[in-house]
Amino acid sequence: MDESVEPVIALLGHPIAGNPAPLALSRAIAALGLDCRLHSFDVTPDDLPTALSGLRVLGFTGVWLDDRLSPHAGRWDSIQENDPHHGGEPANVQPPGPDSHANNSGPEDKAGTEQPPSDAIDIDAITDQATRSIATRCDCLWRCDDTPDQLVGANRKRLFFRECMAVALRQCDDAANSIWVIHHHQRHLDDPASNQRLPQSRVIVLPDWSSTGDAIVSRLNADAWPEPTEPTVVFDLSRQGHPESDTLRKRGYELIGWTEALVGSLNACLQIWTGRQGSSEIMFEAIEEYLGV
Prior knowledge:
alpha/beta; globular; Rossmann fold; about 35% helix; 4-stranded parallel beta sheet; oxidoreductase activity; Aminoacid_DH-like_N_sf; 2 domains; 9 helices
């Protein structure tokens, strides 16, 4: 890279064409008036180790990975999210390769010994379990002051979902019994047990079933779902979106899915890379424009 000081960001996808993230991020950066250069690259999963190593050597400030690539970055155990106190915060990441090894003790892991309240631990554990279908991913990498010659990374999209779930669960008297994760083996949700579980759930999670290698999604029978009497949030973790998501939204359920998570994670990445947060409204408008919604 040259001697310029503005952040230089790489956006990697396979394919990157057709992905609205570059447009959303560029619009947000322009609105902030930031000097920041974005470069988009089409990289195959097999070439990802070489690409990340090259970006590290070339001095890129940050890297964003799309949903096709992020699972392949996470398989090198570069992200440490299992500790409920950790909450998905960054861990040191070596660009994956034959000689790479993960250093799973990020700076946040060692900071302080104060324990969070027990209810916070419970909610952290609940959201950790609820988002396991997207756990082995890394979608955001950057440099930190402690290791400027390396990249560190985290699963910002998963952290976005976990934070939103935590907000909803904190409004419930019994968080553990107020969340319902619909697992991939639950094919039909019109059985008595499901009918009993649905009304008491304030948070409903539709996992990313593609991560299980299962191409068949559960039939939600959403037309028969009762209209919620209390605010109820449905989290759709899949990239393609559940085919009955729109029906749930029309019946009065709040839906947080791929688009919301994309905007939330891009904003978190932008904060890391530049110290500034962009406009979520501008990002949503750019995504809708790009997808022709």
